[in-house]
Design goal:
By secondary structure, the protein is of the alpha+beta class. Helices cover about 50% and strands about 10% of the residues. The longest helix is centred in the middle third of the chain and has 32 residues. The site of protoporphyrin IX containing FE (HEM) has 23 residues, from helix 13 and helix 18.
Length: about 450
């Protein structure tokens, strides 16, 4: 094992941290272009942050040695708002909750949710149909409304269509809040204190209240037996009816935290993926025409079933390529619970390890012309032989995304059904810029015109 990975000397850290705060992706790029794809940043005496950008490093940290790593301290600020749900918990609590929830997210179970997803996309398209051709929409906002509707209907049997705008604003506020708190060095000592001293925290608490009120209503409706066309038990039923080994039920606090977690994780990521996909398609007419041809020839106007999925090769390639360029979860971070060695470099207990999908997905040693939008790189003949951790939009290992199958059904369905009826074009002169918060959503509105295809 070598002594220590390359990286800046401690006196350069203040400048680097300033850049990391103002522009995290640029600072990561600069760091790896100067030091290579393994970098150690001296955070404090005896404590380092490691950046690993190669697929084999990802596999090592997230899969092969996952038991040596826990969620990084950087996830702690999230707990201030979403509590200790599946994303932010660790250890025994996480294992118990994951065991409880995992069966509901198997391929077979989420396939059962397809009709509810189709109905939600239909509701959005029917609303679009009532607007004049050429109407301008904010693609990020509409996709967020759609995926919130899907999560509400399919996981909680709830109609959340009336909550779209307030939840959208609240999620944006909370993402900004988490990002600001993470950037405050006090977070390393106490995220709660960092939250309290940050300007604007009252507004953040109001956003949390907005989410909490929606969640409380969803639970109260279910307890009162008010359903919304449910044919089989959903996530809310599973959580309410679950009994732990000692026979106890889930506590009200834990119930709230899990629901808020699924609320947030389940819609924001898929919405971001769809918004970037629509943007990229509007920049590449030949890619979009090929998508339209595939959708028209495979489905002839009907919504896709499970059996169609394998035939929608180009559709899936387009979505994968959009998630490669704009991974909704752009960074994945762990704290080492024990000493380790990654790619021949030492990692000490307590060090933080970053495996950023954004950089792994644009690694020039793995991807040809990594900055280009080229879905054909995901066609089976070109994808063959690529390292399986070169593409990690859903993370990997036991902490990988529980909603992976759910999300893929949802985004394929949404893209296909939109493509069957509409073309979306970016307003001329408008160039979206990624906003680096918890997710990689577009900084401003993604203003696009809706045009019917018929
Ligand atoms: C395109 C859509 C999505 C992307 C790109 C995505 C990405 C991710 C990633 C990268 C992680 C792992 C984070 C880490 O290792 O630190 C994760 C975890 C998680 N995701 Fe997703 N996700 C998506 C959709 C969904 C959906 C639809 C749901 C729920 C319905 C969901 C629920 C979760 C949960 C609960 C976790 C935490 C899992 C655990 O730690 O046990 N995600 N997601």
């Amino acid at each position: 094992m070598r002594a220590r990975a390359p990286g800046p000397r401690p006196h350069r850290m203040p400048g680097l941290l300033r850049l990391a705060v103002s522009d995290p992706i640029r600072s990561m790029y600069q760091t790896v272009s100067r030091y290579g794809d393994v970098v150690r940043l001296p955070l404090a005496p005896g404590r380092g942050i490691h950046l690993f950008c190669r697929p084999e490093h990802v596999e090592h940290v997230l899969v092969d040695r996952e038991q040596r790593y826990g969620k990084a301290f950087t996830y702690r600020p999230l707990r201030e708002w979403i509590g200790l749900g599946l994303i932010t918990s660790d250890g025994e609590l996480w294992e118990t909750q994951r065991r409880l929830i995992q069966p509901l997210f198997s391929h077979r179970q989420v396939e059962n949710l397809r009709p509810l997803m189709v109905a939600a996309v239909d509701r959005m398209l029917t609303e679009w149909d009532s607007r004049p051709d050429g109407t301008v929409v904010d693609a990020t906002g509409v996709m967020s409304g759609l995926t919130l509707d899907i999560v509400g209907a399919s996981l909680f049997g709830a109609d959340l269509t009336g909550d779209r705008d307030s939840v959208y604003d609240a999620v944006e506020t909370l993402q900004d809040a988490v990002t600001k708190v993470i950037k405050n060095p006090l977070t390393w000592v106490s995220p709660r204190a960092a939250r309290r001293v940050s300007p604007g925290f009252r507004q953040w608490d109001r956003a949390k209240d907005t989410i909490d009120q929606v969640v409380a209503r969803v639970i109260a409706d279910r307890r009162a037996g008010r359903g919304h066309g449910r044919e089989r038990p959903d996530l809310l039923d599973a959580l309410l009816e679950a009994r732990y080994e000692d026979g106890s039920a889930i506590s009200p606090g834990q119930l709230r935290d899990e629901i808020v977690t699924f609320f947030m994780a389940g819609h924001e990521t898929s919405a971001t993926c769809l918004a970037w996909t629509l943007y990229l398609l509007s920049t590449a007419p030949e890619v979009r025409e090929r998508l339209e041809e595939e959708v028209d020839s495979v489905l002839a106007g009907r919504p896709p079933t499970q059996e169609d999925t394998d035939k929608l090769v180009w559709t899936r390639a387009v979505l994968h390529e959009a998630m490669r360029l704009y991974p909704p979860v752009w960074t994945v971070e762990r704290d080492a619970a024990a000493d380790d060695e990654v790619g021949g470099w030492p990692v000490r207990e307590g060090d933080t390890v970053i495996v950023p999908p954004y950089l792994v997905h644009r690694h020039p040693g793995v991807w040809e012309s990594p900055e280009a939008f080229d879905p054909s790189r995901f066609l089976p003949d070109r994808a063959a032989g690529r390292h399986r951790h070169a593409f990690i939009p859903f993370g990997g290992g036991k902490r990988g995304c529980i909603g992976n199958a759910f999300a893929m059904i949802e985004v394929v369905l949404a893209l296909v059904m939109v493509t069957q009826r509409y073309r979306l074009d970016l307003l001329p002169g408008f160039e979206p810029v990624p906003k680096v918060t918890v997710t990689l959503r577009p900084l401003h509105e993604m203003a696009m015109t809706l045009r019917r295809r018929d």
